[in-house]
Design a protein that fits this description.
Structural class: mainly beta
Order of helices and strands: HEEEEEEEEEEEE
Strand content: 35-45%
Number of domains: 2
Largest sheet: 2 strands, antiparallel
Distance between the termini: 38 Å
Number of strands: 12
Strand order of the largest sheet: 1-12
Shape: elongated
Length: 165
């Protein structure tokens, strides 16, 4: 009886059906992108520097008042040599900054900023134009993309995955 049980167990395991997991995955996507307009304006300041040796200031150089619509003014200094006949040095510099606008505002029309402030450091990027930018996915897996204007991007992707374990 033991031999029969042993032989029947071997037979059962030898003829058992094979099993496997099969997974199929289909994924499709379309990405449409239009760049946005951007601008960064940095106002440059007014600055002044004065240095010297063996000089006496009779009028100290100065910056003016900050008023809307104008840059800060500058009044140069007056000096005289302290000890006649001795070496002297004097340096005075002024860098005029950007005007101060009375009102700083911008508007956006159809994704475009028509008027931007212009300061000492201005970086501007034009926005994209969608124009004919388009993409479609059909139920049969067919994909179609149509190019747009400047500053646009269209990407279509199809992923087929078959996994057998």
């Amino acid at each position: 009886m033991r031999r029969f049980l042993f032989v029947s167990c071997l037979t059962f395991f030898a003829i058992s059906p094979a099993s496997a997991d099969i997974t199929s995955k289909i994924q499709s996507s379309i990405s449409l992108t239009v760049d946005g307009a951007a601008s960064q304006a940095i106002r440059q300041p007014s600055s002044m520097a004065v240095s010297g040796s063996n000089v006496t200031m009779s009028t100290v150089p100065s910056l003016g008042n900050l008023t809307p619509g104008t840059a800060i003014g500058y009044t140069p200094g007056d000096y005289s040599i302290t000890t006649a006949g001795d070496a002297f040095s004097y340096s005075e510099s002024y860098s005029g900054g950007d005007n101060t606008p009375a009102v700083l505002s911008t508007t956006v029309t159809a994704g475009v900023v028509p008027a931007l402030p212009i300061f000492g450091s201005t970086v501007t990027q034009a926005g994209g134009v969608a124009a004919t930018l388009a993409g479609t996915l059909a139920t049969d897996g067919a994909m179609a993309i149509t190019a747009g204007g400047a500053g646009t991007e269209a990407v279509a992707q199809l992923v087929l995955e078959l996994s057998i374990k």
